[in-house]
Specification:
Oligomer: single chain
CATH topology: Methane Monooxygenase Hydroxylase, Chain G, domain 1
Strand content: under 5%
Distance between the termini: 142 Å
């Protein structure tokens, strides 16, 4: 009689313990604001009660009224325990994938940050930078696979809002980085186009200067030209450095070249008059 009362007391105690864990687990699994680490710790809390219940059920007669109640609680507890373990595993995998993807994105951004901070440089160097940006931008597509995996894991953690939020934030970071690559590449393309126009215009002005010189010199000696040049202090033509310039710089350089053309014409006319 005493043994039976003790057995029934143990049954009631374990039934209450399992019922409490079941209620807590149902709340945890349906909580969008849950703390993800609670999945693993709550799963651990099931281990001991389930083990004791399994041992107790082996001693309780199946015709005992409390047997079915405890047995049903065990089935429900095992099911929820399994769900908790799956959630805990999914969260661990999610954290690993999320952190790895974040590190990868930072590495992929490095060429972008480095090139944005570059000083004025030659057109050839800029072309190399443009190739670097194109290759780095293509590598961003590799993160799409990671994005799909993160999305799938976040769905396994549904309705956990923190997982969905992390996926959204990462997706925005990738899109912004891709846009920054495209903006910088477009800027470089435009500046290279302006550079080509600058070089072409400079060459055209140089040819015009040479043509004008050829038409005006007509027998004027080199000594006369040198003498008038020294008199009017004409600065030698500046050598062009093929750097990426803005349109304002182009206009300024063009004005200087035109000034040199008219100065040269003035010098040559003086030479012609002197002769």
């Amino acid at each position: 009689m005493v043994a039976k009362e003790k057995m029934l007391g143990d049954v009631e105690h374990l039934a209450d313990e399992l019922a409490t864990l079941i209620a807590e687990t149902n709340n945890l699994l349906s909580d969008a604001e849950a703390i993800p680490n609670m999945y693993a710790s709550t799963a651990d809390a099931f281990v001991a009660p389930l083990q004791r219940t399994h041992e107790l059920l082996e001693t309780v007669p199946k015709d005992e009224p409390h047997f079915d109640k405890l047995s049903n609680l065990v089935d429900e507890a095992k099911n929820l325990h399994s769900q908790l373990l799956q959630r805990a595993d999914a969260w661990r995998e999610f954290v690993i994938e999320r952190d790895t993807a974040t590190d990868q994105l930072e590495m992929m951004r490095k060429p972008l940050d480095d090139i944005e901070n570059q000083p004025l440089r030659s057109a050839d160097q800029v072309l190399l930078d443009l190739d670097t940006l194109k290759n780095a931008k293509e590598e961003l597509s590799e993160l799409r696979t990671t994005m799909i995996k993160l999305q799938n894991l976040s769905e396994q953690l549904d309705p956990l809002e923190s997982a969905y939020a992390d996926v959204r934030f990462f997706d925005v970071d990738v899109e912004q980085t891709q846009q920054q690559f495209e903006d910088l590449m477009s800027l470089i393309d435009n500046e290279l186009h302006d550079e080509n126009i600058l070089i072409e215009s400079a060459q055209q002005l140089q040819r015009e200067l040479e043509r004008l010189e050829g038409e005006l010199v007509n027998g004027v000696s080199k000594e006369q030209i040198d003498e008038v040049s020294r008199t009017h202090a004409v600065a030698p033509s500046q050598q062009f450095t093929h750097n990426v310039r803005s349109s304002k710089q182009f206009c300024s350089l063009s004005e200087n070249l035109m000034r040199n053309v008219f100065t040269a014409a003035y010098i040559l006319l003086n030479c012609y008059t002197c002769s």
